[in-house]
Amino acid sequence: MEKHMESFLNNLSFTSITIATLTLLLLYLQNPKTCINNPHQLPNPLKPNQKFPKSTCNLTHRAFTTVNKHNRRIWATKSWIRTVQSFTIQFQSLQAQNLFSNNSRVLVVSAGAGHSVMALNKIGVNDVNGVELVESHPLVGRADPHSLPFFDDVFDFGFSPFLERALFPARYVGEMERTVKGGGACVVAVEECGGEEVEEVEKLFRKSKLVEVNNVTLGGEKRTSIVMKVVK
User: Fold this and answer.
1) N- to C-terminal Cα distance for the chain?
2) Contact predicate 174/147, CB 8 Å
């Protein structure tokens, strides 16, 4: 009796598995009437701000957005314009002190999305190299700030808006000094701080002398700008 029952249960299990498999196969092969066969023929494609479809039945064609078009949208926002303007004011002040000119070769380390690079371009500086761990084309290229891909003494002016983001501050600053010519300037910005913190930053520079320290506002944040003159 037990053997018959065991055989019956085995047959029942096999039959159930077979039916379930065939059902799933049919569901997979079937094209529901509510699904869209050709998304390219849709009269009204999704707008960029609409959510992604939850399934293939909601699939619609999304127009391709070029990098230039995407950048133009970002650069037209009030936040972007305000941030660029704050950097422009900072650079105009530094330029008035003859720390660099429109003909200078400028390096921007930890350039982020490129606000500072655009600000330099706007005041007439065309030879600007902005670098960041993540590329932000066309303003910022990808490079490790702790190991810059440039020869020694190739820049007239170096700038970093976010020194505190450096994993190894001494090496970070050393790379700025290495690539900036003697007589050039390195300017770094950190979170707003006082005398002791400024001294700590100054000690990171082995080949530069402190010129001045100012409190500035960059991108809506209060920061301290430290100007160093490279001596080689």
Assistant:
1) 99
2) no
The residues near 54 (Cβ < 8 Å, ≥ 6 apart) are none
Residue pair 96/145 in contact (Cβ under 8 Å)? The answer is: no
Query: Could you report the per-residue pLDDT of 160-208, keeping only the tens digit for each?
Result: 999 999 999 999 999 999 999 999 999 999 999 999 999 999 999 999 9
Residue 148 class from Cβ within 10 Å (0-12 exposed, 13-18 middle, 19+ buried)? buried
Sequence-ordered list of residues with C-beta below 8 angstroms from that of 112, at least 6 positions apart, any chain: 132, 136, 140, 161, 162
The vertex-170 CA angle with 115 and 107, nearest 5°, equals: 30
Identity of residue 181: K
3-state helix, strand, coil in the chain (%, to 5): 40, 25, 35
Nearest to 175, CA basis, from 210, 200, 151 = 151
CA distance 10 to 88: 79
The position carrying tokens 């500072």 is 116
**Residue 80, C-beta contacts closer than 8 angstroms, at least 6 positions apart:** 74, 115
- Can you read off the two tokens belonging to residue 91? 């650079």
Q: Which two tokens stand for residue 167?
A: 């994993």
Q: Do residues 57 and 35 lie in contact, with contact meaning Cβ atoms separated by under 8 Å?
A: yes
Distance CA 113, CA 135 (A): 8
Q: How confident is the model at residue 232, as a pLDDT?
A: 83
Tokens of residue 15, six digits: 């039959």
